[in-house]
Amino acid sequence: MSDNGKTVALVLGAGAARGLAHIGVIRELEEQGYLIRSIAGTSIGALVGGIYAMGELDTYTEWVVGLEQKDILRLVDWTLSGGGLIRGKKVMGKLETLVGNAEIRDFDLDYTAVAVDIDHSREIWLSEGPLFDAIRASIAIPGLFTPHRYLGRTLVDGGLLNPVPVAPTLRSLTDLTVVVDVNGPSEFPGGASTAPSQAQETNERAWHKFREFLNSFGSDSPPRESRPGLFSVMLRSLEITQALITRQQLAVFRPDRLISIPKNVCMAHEFHRAREMIDLGREKARAELTKGRD
Question: Is 157 marked active-site?
Fold first, then answer.
């Protein structure tokens, strides 16, 4: 274990299930002796970062690595109103039961969750108030989760405008800024013998009930198997936008370290692959943090 004692401002990006890699990155930073003093996160980055900031990442990790597909579906509370397909009350209730809630101002480190106020078309930094209000706002993927009404505002996923929120961390004086982008360039997972499209078809068949429900909003007839469903199209469109904004943000802020998780290593809904994503996060973090040491 290294004991370098360097302080870190950690930026945790949006990317749904791929964002579970954030857990591995945090664990590798700790293993190498870095001291996390500031966290800014969007969407899943806000969730993982917030639970870490409140000191409950071990509890969350133990729970999430035990999830199976059927467990995830039980946490989905469908709705046909409110501006989204999922209310999000079940999953947020489960998280509160699991780790409790906390006031952000009580954290020992600087924490910011990023959301978007859709009524005023502006980015919102949530760095005070109840943690789970901040997280619920930041994870509200437009069209999928209903927006979160908080402090008189209608808030949705911060990834819409800022998938890698470096700016909030500039308030903290640290030795390094480390960005974790979980919407990185595609690559084949190590040892994979199938192309991403084949893996996607396999996963979508396993989730056929989920997909059929979502596709029912787009057509009266069943979709062709060769065409992506509503869920896939919606998330791919968001990922394309986020990738463009991410490149712009990184060009402006130039972090000291960039840890990139390929966007094709898992699909957005595959939270049952938590252990794999956590291990990948550690692997990618270790490779990046040891660059130049020799």
Answer: yes
